[in-house]
Amino acid sequence: MALLDILPKPANGEWSTINIRSKILPIIARISSRVFLGEELCRNEEWLKVTQQYTIDGMRAAEELRLWPAALRPIVHWFLPSCQRARAHVKVARSIIDPVLKKRRQEKAANGGKVEHDDAIEWFERTAKGKYYDPAVAQLVMSLAAIHTTSD
To answer: Is residue 143 classed exposed, middle or buried when 0-12, 13-18 and 19+ CB atoms within 10 A define those classes?
Structure first.
């Protein structure tokens, strides 16, 4: 479905040239989101946009932070635009994932703890065993790893 939505449809059945580099990022974001987040969120355009932008800005932030001495990085990151954008992406990701988690936790409570989802959201929930973790950051890191390694 990702390929059908993202790649251009041939006109009159003719082959056409495309810039695959511009298409690969959204394809990988969509496919990895299907595995990590399930059907509900894999087509969420806001989520797909935030994962792609977080990957770009997160990698840029890491490069920029490496230019600073390690002792200054805890201060400098507050002022670097790429770091500020990455933090903004995390906020958006939380606003998307938190309602899904809340809904799933309510469903689980209502069904006596029965697990009905097989995706990374559920994997992290099971592994955490009630301990605190940041689901949005966990999913963004998974997406970043998938997008960064696969797109190259």
So the answer is: buried
**SS3 assignment for 89-118:** HHHHHHHHHHHHHHHHHHHHHHCCCCCCCC
Q: How far apart are CA 110 and CA 55, in angstroms?
A: 36
Please report where in the chains the tokens 């409570």 appear, as a residue. 109
Write the pLDDT tens digit of every residue in 83-117.
Answer: 999 999 999 999 999 999 898 888 888 888 777 78
Tokens for 78? 């507050």
Q: Burial level of 117, CB count in 10 A (0-12/13-18/19+)?
A: middle
Question: What's the pLDDT band for 4 if we cut at 50, 70, 90?
Answer: low
Residue found under tokens 């894999």: 42
